[in-house]
Amino acid sequence: MLGYIIRRILAVIPVMVIVAIFVFLLLRLTPGDPAAIIAGDSATPAQIQRIRESLGLADPLHIQFITWMGQLAQGDLGTSIISNQPVTRLIGQRIWPTLQIGTLTIILSVLIAVPLGVLAAWRHRTWADYAVMTFSVLGFSIPVFVIGYIFIKIFAIDLRWLPVQGYTPPGQDLQAFFTRAVLPCLTLATIYIALIARMTRASLLEVLGEDYVRTARAKGVKEHVVLFRHALRNAAVPIMTIIGTGFALLISGVVVTESVFNIPGIGRLTVDAILARDYPVIQAMILLTSAIYVFINLLIDISYTFFDPRIRY
Amino acid sequence: MQFRNRPFDTAPVALKIEKLTVRTANDDDAVKILDQIDVTIREGETVCLVGESGSGKSVTSLAIMGLLPKGALEVAGGRVELDGMNLLDLDASTMRKLRASRISMIFQEPMTALNPVMKVGDQIEEVLDSHTKLPAREKKKRVIDIMEQVHLPDVERIYGSYPHQLSGGQRQRIMIAMALILEPKLLIADEPTTALDVTTQNQVLKLIAELQERHGTAVLFITHDMGVVAEIADTVYVMRHGKIVESAPIETLLRSPQKDYTRNLLEAVPSLIPRDARPLADGAPALDVEGLTKVYDTRSFFGRGRETRAAQDVRFAIRPGRTLGIVGESGSGKSTVARCIMRLIDPTDGRITVGKADIAKLGRAALQPHRKHIQIVFQDPFRSLNPRWKVGDSLIEGPLNFGQSRKQALDHARELMELVGLPPDALGRYPHQFSGGQRQRIAIARAIAMRPDVLVADEAVSALDVSVQAQVLKLLDDLQEKLGIAILFITHDLRVAAQICDDVVVMQHGRIVEHDTAGNVLSRPQHEYTRALIDAAPGRRWDFANFRELATA
Amino acid sequence: MAAQPQPTSAMQVVLGAIQLPRRWRLGFGPILAALVLIVIVVATASAYLYVPHNPMSMDALQRLKGPSETYWLGTDPYGRDLFSRVMVGGQVSLLIGVAAAIVSVLIGLVIGLISGFFRMADALIMRVMDALMAIPSILLAIALVALVGPSVGSVIFAITIPEVPRVVRLVRSVVLSAREEPYVEAAIALGSSMPKILWKHLMPNTLAPLIVQGTYICASAILTEAILSFLGAGVSTEIPTWGNIMAEGRMFFQIKPELIFWPGLLLSLCILSINLLGDTARDLLDPRLKKREA
Predict the structure, then answer these.
(1) A10: helix, strand or coil
(2) Would the CB atoms of B388 and C204 count as touching at under 8 Å?
(3) Chain C window 122-161: which residues touch A at a Cβ cutoff of 8 Å?
(4) Least enclosed by CB within 10 Å: which of A238, B501, C22, C168?
């Protein structure tokens, strides 16, 4: 098992290196002068020159790469073109709201989605199943921001139950934090719940057709024990996998949701960077979110050993 | 042959099935899967339900257990009586309480029938959890006790093991322990030894008989294997198309079957007496294998390389017009040898001479011209033809690769269809329109279309029902006589080997342990392992086709 | 190595026989979905034939008007007719969806076939695909659009690239399992060349899953276009798309939510129909796909 874990950890390295190379090349291989593209149409030659220097675009490609990787290794993600601040500092200032909302969303989603999926599989081809599946397809089909605005319209504008938007740090006022976090979390959770519930249902249905489930029934085991002890544990690996890969959706959702609800997190930072063409920030965000994604999926890979004793190689 | 021949007329009835009818749950055009079945099982009796695929024998067992797949099959009438109750009338919770305590069941595939993520001890204990309220220590004691009764070694260790850490035979013992821990009145065994090797099968059959004796359990044993039936049955029910064709005490049935279907079924069982060897032609061997070795490296992460020798120093030769069989149990390396010879995998060492050329080390391009001399027929007729291709296209695939025109190849294909006993219009149809036996004929025709010198048949009749098996073996025999091909026949079944092989190679753990004429290997085995294999063959003292004991030479 | 007989049980034969007709029986949902989709596609494609106003012409006097006889759904912050804009906007959104689906499926098919059949290439290709999948697709698309420019073509390109790895993985997994099939081994024994086996035996296995995957990509591409526009990284704002119309409505959401809801409704209906049809296609073409793609 230790061998498996070490191998999983080592497998992360090439992926992150390729991500880094990819991000590096993205800017450099773009047709035309990247500095001019970043500076925008109305830029003066002096501005373009300044950008070219600050990104080190004048050097030969391999020198640029070595310098860039060297900086990365020291934790230097570059400097914002707009605010002239180190990107790491900008991210440090903005990351907490995102982490709080994100964590709440994941917990909320898993707590809602897995029981929904189990219900749908258990009551296969009944109204409960159809209801869950309908919700799930709807969740995939409506853009995140439209969901957000629908929630705002219903719960904040019409019913006046919750504030429209904004963010309060939990350390400052816990209740205010939660009332303002409810809608963004629900918005963000919709697609994630849809995804996880769908996968839970599908893999549970598959497992319920397995021979060992028939054996359990032939032993006279009670139906709820069959469902939870035998079926759900065997379905856990694909469910965990989808929680991991679905994390990418969550990251995209964060960017959108934070601007709908005006939350000063790294999602907003990204949107502001897009509008201002602040390329170093965009680049750093890609690296950071990829690293988080890879790390989460590494944890999930390792968690397989807990669910399935056969993974020991 | 010693039959069980025990009288049961006076024993109390354990389970009585009357006019049981099961049909598809599809309301518009329901098909009857079981049609008015009557079966009576008495205490301590072993009833064998025997039939070919599609006869409805497994459905019978699931109907008794109340485990018919919901929405697909449903009971349409009849009674299943146990302890004076009609099981078909019971509600779900009462039925659940009867399972494992009054009737229990074991299945064909012990790997998939056990939950892969639960320790096997816990899986046995779960039966007690579901039906009793024993203290934890008592439960563990009972589990250990039943595990000892099924003769599992090192019980404490196996108690804490997961299914994938056990062998096939051990897994089936766990299943049996699970089924018998509450001493049920009836044990239903659905092909419980079909997935096991013959020596393991023998042990499991003995174990079931032993426990049955000890606990007085009635056993309903479902199988397609007449040899197994002869070994264990008190009473036999022959099923076909959802109906009982005939039922009788075992010896009566084997000596004087009343119905034609039963007679045909028995006559199709291949005999263990080796056939007469085909004439030995002069000249060079069509296939000559020397020192063939295949080593798999399973490298662990920390660099401790572990080698698995799947085949080691295998040597044999086959002359034109002769058949050499490789027999052995699973893991013996017989299929590895076949795949190496076909160059579907690369041998680690050795020479494979086909005609005059050694093909063991040739690269992909250099190998291509030699491919036409050696062809293969696989085990599974449902997967060996591309389902998207018309039969004709499959048949001419090879000839087109070797420069024949489409028309030439199709003309030849038409002749081949006749040769393998299929109508010429079969060429225009798709594989799913044919039965398993017909598909295997097509696969043989496809191989023959290349006019090969050597044909490798890798378990080519193992997936077929016994009557179809006999026809396909006959076809191979005829083709060989007409075309003078050398055949390498891989099989786990000694009966099949006896019927088709001139020479036999016995393999164990990747090595050849015995190599002689079929007559010598089967009648005067030299190696201990060969003897064990032959001893384990079920029903080996009975001559099924002639309805009498085997005349011992 | 399992060379033991495994007779097909009566059960499998029966289940196979009765499920076939049932599987082909379409429910009410898929038919409705197909109708909705056809109506939306025809209505947007022919929009210029019937829309009452030029979707681009601004009128400062008619800003943010409510629904009326002249302006059926009212007007936007620049006084443009919302109905005309929504109907015309669908053209570009749908075009992006279909184009992204086709291009990513084609690229993914080629790379996936190579990866599934040539072990040498496989390790490298799959590492690159892993890396591409690690980058959140929206951010990757944003970066690509930011660099290549806000044209329709570059948005299609930006949406396509993140979808490719998923197609590659799908094709590769189908090829890897199909190449173990005895009929493929028989083809090797019959002397068929590798390209022939790849194209004639293996590739057809990928078609059904690719059609299903293609519909999902189409739906997700339409969604991604909307999100990109919403974030200001989409098609140039001069071209009306569902995403652009909603993005312009953001500022005025509290005054006039219709600016987001009408295009949002049409877009969601469209994606919903495509997703439902995708699910139906999946169930019809191969029930076993359910697990592979969720």
Answers:
(1) helix
(2) yes
(3) 127-128, 130-140, 142-144, 146-149
(4) C22
